[in-house]
Automatic annotation (TrEMBL):
Superkingdom of this protein's organism: Bacteria
Gene transcribed to yield this protein: fadK1
Catalysed transformations (reactions): 3-(methylsulfanyl)propanoate + ATP + CoA = 3-(methylsulfanyl)propanoyl-CoA + AMP + diphosphate
Protein name: 3-methylmercaptopropionyl-CoA ligase
Pfam families in alphabetical order: AMP-binding, AMP-binding_C
GO biological process: fatty acid metabolic process
Amino acid sequence: MGWMANETGLDKCAANHVPLTPLSHLKRASVVFAEHTAVVYGDVRRSYGEHAARATQLASALAAKGVAPGEVVATLLPNVPAQVEAHFGVPACGAVLNTINTRLDVDTVTYIFEHGEAKMVLVDSQFLDLAEAACANLASPPTLIEVPDAVAGIEASGRHQTYEDLVTGGTTDFEWIMPQDEWESLALNYTSGTTGRPKGVVYHHRGAYLMTMGTVISWRMTLHPTFMQIVPLFHCNGWNHAWMMPLIGGTLVCCRDITAPAIFDAIADEKVTHFGGAPIVLNMLVNAPMEERRAIDHPVEIFTAGAPPAPATLSKIEALGFNVTQVYGLTETYGHVTECLWRSEWDGHEADAKAAIKSRQGVPFPMMEDIVVMDADMTPVPTDASTQGEIMIRGNSVMKGYYKNPQATSEAFAGGYFHSGDIAVQHGDSYIQIADRAKDIIISGGENISSVEVEGVLMAHDDVMLAAVVAKPDDKWGEVPCAFVELKSGATVDEAGLIAFSRQTLAGFKAPKKVVFQELPKTSTGKIQKFELRKLAEKT
C-alpha cells in the first residue's frame, strides 16, 4: 500500500476543510475592505461594511418571513443594488436565488414561479404588473416585495411591502447560514429557451466560488478594479461577477439601462476599468454619435460573449481604447468558461488578422478540466481549424443539472461531458472557434454554411449596423441563406449591393440569396432571436 497506508488520522475536519462558497468573499471583504466602496448606483454609494450589513439584514428579514433553507427566493430586477444584495442575502439565509429575466412574457414567468416554487419575489416597480399577472394564474402565489428605484424616478405602487422596509426590519447580527456541503444549491437560472419551456439550471456553491477565482486570473485583475455590471444579473447571475467583486475589493457600478452615454459616462466619471457585454454592446459603442462619447484616458478591459463578434466590430472598438477578450459559455456553465488568451507572438499581426484571432473562443478558464470539440462518437476532432464538431465541457463550473428534469440532465451529461450544442472547430494551438449553434447551420444543396461566417462578412460593410443570417426554405437547394440587416442612419446600400459585397469574399452558395432590412428582434442580453427570424424567412 506504500505511503498512503500511513495516513491514519489525516481526515477532513473543521480546521482543514471548509465548504467553498462565494458568500465567504463578502464576509472577508466586510472586514478587510470595510471602508472601500462596494456598490455605486447614481448617488447611492455603499462601502463593503454597509453592503455586508444590508445583505445580513436581508437574510434576517427573509428568515423572519418564513423562508426556510433550501426554499427559493426569486427576483424580477434590473441591475440595481437590491439585485446585488440579493446575491448574498438570499443564500445567507440558506435559500436558493432565482433571478428571472425581466423581459419574459407573463406565461413564462408564471411557469418559472410555479416550477421553481418561489416562496417570495423581489420585484422592481417597473415590472410589478408582470409579476402580479403571473401570480394571478397561481393557486399558491409567492409573496411580492416591491423594489422602487428613486435613482430612475420609479416610485412604489403602495400595493406591497417595499424592499427597503423589508431590509431595515432585519437585524445586522443575523448569523449567516453557510453551506455545510459545497454541493448545496446556490442559484436557479432558467435558460432562455427558444423552443419549449425553459429549463431550470441549478448552480452549487463550489462552482460559483471557483468561477470567481478563475475569472480574476483570466481577466488579469488586481486589487480594487472598478467594474460596471452591464450583463444582466439575471443572466448566469451576471457571469458571477457580483460574487467576485468582494474577493478583490472591487467597486461594482450598477447599470440599469444599457446605453452608450451611460457606459461612456461611467468610464469617464467612475473610472470603470472592466465590464462584460454581448457583441451588441460593442456595436452600440462603436456606432455611438460623437456627442454621446467621452474620452477614455485609462485602459478598459471588456469580456464579450453571447455570439461571436464580427472582426470588423473588434477592430473598431479597440481603436477607441478598449481591450476586448472573447469568452464563451452557457447558462449551464455559470457563464464564461473559455477565453481567447492573447499570445505575444500575435502582437505584430495586422489589425484585421488580430481581430480574426480575437474572435476565437479560445482555451479553458483555469477552473475547467477539459473543453474539447468532439464528433458524434465523442472522439476529439482533428485540430485542423476546419473539421467541425460539438463543444464538450468538463470542469468545476458545470451545473448540478436541470431542476426536476433527470432525463434532460442525463442527456446533457452523456459520456461524462456536458454537451453544449455549439458547433465549432479547433485550431492547431487548441483554440476553439465557434462555427455555429447546431440549429443555426444552414444546409444548402448538401453543403454546410455557417451563419456566423456570413454575418461576419456583412458586418464588415460600412453601412451595416447589425446582421443576422438564417436558413430560408428553398425548393431547389433545400435551404439558402437569408440575411436580416439593421442599417446605420444615412445608409445607402440596397439588397443587390449587399449581396454583391458578400460575394467578393464568400463562395457563391454561401452569399445570402435574400436581404431583408429591419430592426432585429433581441433578447434582454442582446442576443438576436433567430427563431423569430426563421419564421419571417419562411414567409419572405
